[in-house]
Specification:
Elements (H helix, E strand, L loop, with lengths): L1 H20 L6 H15 L2 H7 L7 E2 L10 E5 L29 H6 L3 H17 L4 E3 L22 H16 L4 E7 L11 E4 L2 H8 L1 H8 L5 E4 L3 E2 L2 E2 L4 H11 L5 E3 L8 H6 L12 H4 L12 H8 L6 H16 L14 H14 L1 E5 L12 E4 L24 H8 L5 E4 L9 E2 L2 E2 L10 H13 L3 E7 L22 H11 L3 E6 L14 E4 L7 H10 L20 H4 L6 E3 L4 E5 L8 H6 L17 E3 L3 E2 L3 E2 L5 E9 L5 E11 L10 E10 L4 E8 L6 E3 L4 E3 L3 E8 L8 E6 L1
Parallel strand pairs: 2-3, 3-4, 4-6, 5-7, 5-19, 6-9, 11-12, 11-15, 15-16, 16-17, 22-30
Antiparallel strand pairs: 1-2, 7-8, 10-17, 13-14, 18-19, 20-23, 21-23, 23-26, 24-25, 24-29, 27-28, 29-30
Helix pairs in contact: 2-13, 5-6, 5-14, 6-8, 14-18, 15-18, 16-17
This protein binds beta-D-glucopyranose.
């Protein structure tokens, strides 16, 4: 008996001992959190202060003593920006930083295809990994509020649902490879002019319904590891250290566990930065290399000034530790992530991705008499500066240094028989072809006068079978460019006059507009065909030629409403853009008087017919859609309702169409938009093919933001659902009731 007892006791003690020694398997996140706490407990005050601000234009230090490498950020969002000098914006002249330029984000949004976003994010991450960039500064999801905004080309259009659906796969794709996405510019950075001084006044409802959803989706669904505060102010506080935006909405409500990075030079105050949620300061002006210690990175708001306040006892390290924890978490997700794959630059797969996204985003706006596609053997005249101008250089921080960029004229010449393609310059726009030291070899110098250029183009147009005018905006100041807004809605450089002259000389004219914004088209009725081509990146010319020739059937859809004139746009109609100067504070108050009525929500409400509606885009084939059917007509609180249509390709070529689901609230205690996009699906169909497409919606698609309860509410009552091909072509309604 005694023997048994001793044996059992021995086994018991042995097992307990073994248990104590067995490794405890914590989930990966918990392990990282433990390592963060461990590292934090070992860091000195100086090391903690060091990791929360920059050490060069684009990098911040790691903690070398503990094995954490430096953190390198880079723009973003269309490719990996060339390396710059340590303290300057000028490119450093490296030989390994020529990249692939992907199409601008407006083009990505115009693809209405979330698979393209995933492809974009993954491809960009591979380029970033090769260059050892740990944080990509993008994507941008500020809402397209006015077509004058110089930076719309970097954003994803006017609709919060579309932008949300498109941003999530981009973020996930990028981060799946261990590269952090830094979603920007949070928030309300909807115009560029006076971007450091604009104080946005907007209703809580518009903030939540229009301006925040894409950021929220990037954080809560995409799991973004960092976010960039915007330059402008909200409630008189800069967004890089804004209590409501950062502490309340981002960190408390959305439970964001990543790093808030200041926009470059967006931090203005040490104590606000300490208290109001900024974690990592970048770009406050400095040049320690040439100016010495008095102007080095130690002078940042979150550097010596912060340390001093801690030393004086005004702050404990509570806020500092919280910032450092987030930065360390970012290290573990990026630089310390041992599972990060190898990167590669300028691979065939990246060019393929750039081309695919570009061709999916090009929008055929108008095509009377099926003038497009252009068949082989036609005598083609190409006119316009944008046919020969590189668009990957310029525009501000998204400017790139590319390994190649196929120009539209070259793409067209390669695709069609070279001997049948003539060129005439037509107009001179901006001949500058350099940005921050990246200079593009080709000279755009032109000595002839405007009338000589017009004459040449018109003469050549008379003897051509088809004229392709390639113009639009470019990346120069006051066009599609950071730092300023456009000064006018119309095309620059007298292009309208030239287009009219060409159309009079030859009615078979196609206008290819290259821009990130809509423009006035006073000549629209004189031109049978218009293609919206965006900034398409490295494969620009090939993408344009493949659509013009019909090798690719266009399937892009406008991610914004194309107004006939600025009065159709709420921000301008209400006179609220660009705001009212408050000289004593050097601030411009910009009240978003149109409230939630942005884009089609405004034109719908005021029964205005835009030039082209949101979601519009033609194809070389035709589609027929059946009337929508719902699987029930009564929906309860936690229920779903399925709405279906069948779509048939009734034309002669294969092609894709985007089915768009819009919802109208028919009984509401608050004013609601006439309809809102709540679902879309891109479908590829061969001739004669039919497919049934179903949208499943829950009450989130019926909700509005109630600023009395500060929450989303779906009110009981009747709703209509429409499935159409654009906001201007919505088809028949199917009605249902929320009980
Ligand atoms: C821009 C950011 C950019 C940063 C770094 C700022 O001026 O607003 O979008 O990421 O510079 O280049």
């Amino acid at each position: 008996m005694k023997k048994i007892f001793i044996t059992v006791a021995f086994i018991g003690i042995w097992t307990l001992g073994l248990k104590a020694q067995l490794p405890v398997y914590l989930d990966e996140n918990q392990q990282i959190e433990n390592r963060i706490e461990d590292a934090l407990s070992r860091m000195t005050l100086d090391e903690k202060i060091a990791v929360i601000h920059a050490q060069s234009k684009f990098s911040s230090p790691g903690v070398k003593r503990l094995g954490f490498p430096d953190l390198w950020t880079d723009d973003g969002p269309h490719g990996v920006r060339p390396d710059v000098l340590w303290d300057e914006w000028e490119q450093a002249g490296q030989t390994n930083d020529s990249c692939v330029a992907f199409p601008a984000l407006t083009c990505l949004a115009a693809s209405w295809n979330p698979e393209m976003s995933a492809l974009y994010g993954e491809s960009l991450a591979e380029e970033a990994l090769y260059r050892n960039k740990n944080v990509m500064l993008g994507p941008g999801v500020n809402i397209y509020r006015t077509p004058l905004c110089g930076r719309n080309f970097e954003y994803m259009g006017e609709d919060p649902f579309l932008a949300s659906q498109m941003v999530v796969p981009y973020v996930k794709g990028l981060q799946s490879k261990g590269v952090a996405s830094c979603v920007k510019h949070y928030a309300l950075n909807n115009d560029e002019e006076y971007r450091h001084q604009v104080n946005v006044i907007v209703s809580e409802r518009a903030l939540h319904e229009i301006y925040l959803p894409a950021f929220k989706a990037a954080v809560t669904e995409g799991g973004a590891w960092s976010i960039m505060g915007a330059y402008n102010l909200y409630k008189n506080q800069h967004n890089c250290h804004n209590d409501i935006m950062l502490n309340k909405i981002l960190k408390q409500d959305w439970q964001f566990d990543g790093v808030v990075v200041s926009d470059w030079g967006g931090c203005h105050d040490t104590e606000e930065a300490i208290k109001n949620g900024l974690d990592l300061e970048f770009g406050s002006w400095t040049d320690g290399l040439t100016m010495g210690a008095t102007n080095a990175y130690d002078q940042y708001y979150l550097a010596l000034a912060y340390k001093k306040l801690i030393k004086e006892g005004k702050y404990t390290t509570k806020e500092l530790d919280e910032k450092v924890r987030r930065v360390l978490r970012l290290f573990f997700r990026t630089t310390m992530n041992r599972n990060r794959p190898m990167g590669f630059l300028c691979s065939e797969s990246h060019y393929e991705a750039a081309l695919k996204i570009a061709t999916e985003g090009i929008v055929l706006l108008k095509n009377d008499n099926n003038i497009l596609p252009i068949s082989n053997g036609k005598r083609i005249l190409v006119v316009g500066e944008n046919a020969i101008k590189m668009m990957t250089v310029g525009g501000g921080s998204s400017s790139l240094k590319v390994q190649k960029e196929i120009l539209p004229l070259d793409g067209i010449r390669t695709r069609f028989d070279k001997s049948t393609v003539e060129y005439a310059r037509g107009y001179v726009g901006d001949t500058v072809q350099s940005y921050n030291g990246v200079t593009v070899g080709r000279s755009l110098y032109e000595s002839r006068s405007e009338s000589q250029l017009t004459q040449e183009a018109v003469d050549k147009a008379r003897v051509a079978d088809v004229v392709i005018f390639i113009g639009g905006l470019n990346k120069s100041d006051y066009q599609d460019c950071e730092g300023h807004d456009r000064k006018q809605y119309g095309l620059p450089y007298n292009q309208d006059k030239l287009i009219e002259a060409l159309a009079a000389a030859n009615p078979n004219i196609v206008v290819v507009n290259i821009s990130g914004n809509s423009v006035a088209m006073p000549w629209i009725n004189k031109v049978p065909s218009v293609v919206q081509a965006w900034y398409l990146g490295s494969e620009s010319g090939e993408a344009i030629a493949s659509v013009l020739s019909g090798d690719v059937n266009p399937s892009g859809k406008l991610p914004f409403t194309w107004y006939s004139d600025l009065n159709q746009c709420g921000a301008h109609f209400t006179g609220s853009y660009p705001g009212v100067w408050r000289p004593a504070h050097d601030i411009i108050d910009e009240e978003y008087k149109e409230d939630i009525f942005v884009g089609y929500r405004f034109t719908d409400k005021n029964k205005l017919k835009p030039l082209f509606p949101f979601g519009h885009g033609l194809s070389y084939t035709t589609f027929e859609i059946s009337e929508p059917k719902a699987d029930k007509n009564i929906m309860t609180e936690n229920d779903k309702i399925n709405i279906s249509v069948t779509i048939k390709n009734t034309g002669k070529v294969s092609g894709s169409e985007v089915l768009q689901l819009y919802i109208s609230d028919l009984q509401s205690s608050v004013i609601r938009p006439v309809k809102e996009l709540k679902g879309f699906q891109k479908v590829y169909l061969t001739p004669g093919e039919t497919r049934e497409i179903t949208f499943s919606i829950d009450k989130s698609a019926l909700s509005f933001y109630d600023d009395k309860t500060h929450s989303w509410t779906a009110e009981k009552g009747k709703f209509s659902a429409f499935i159409g091909l654009s906001a201007g072509e919505i088809g028949k309604a199917v009605k249902f009731e929320l009980k």
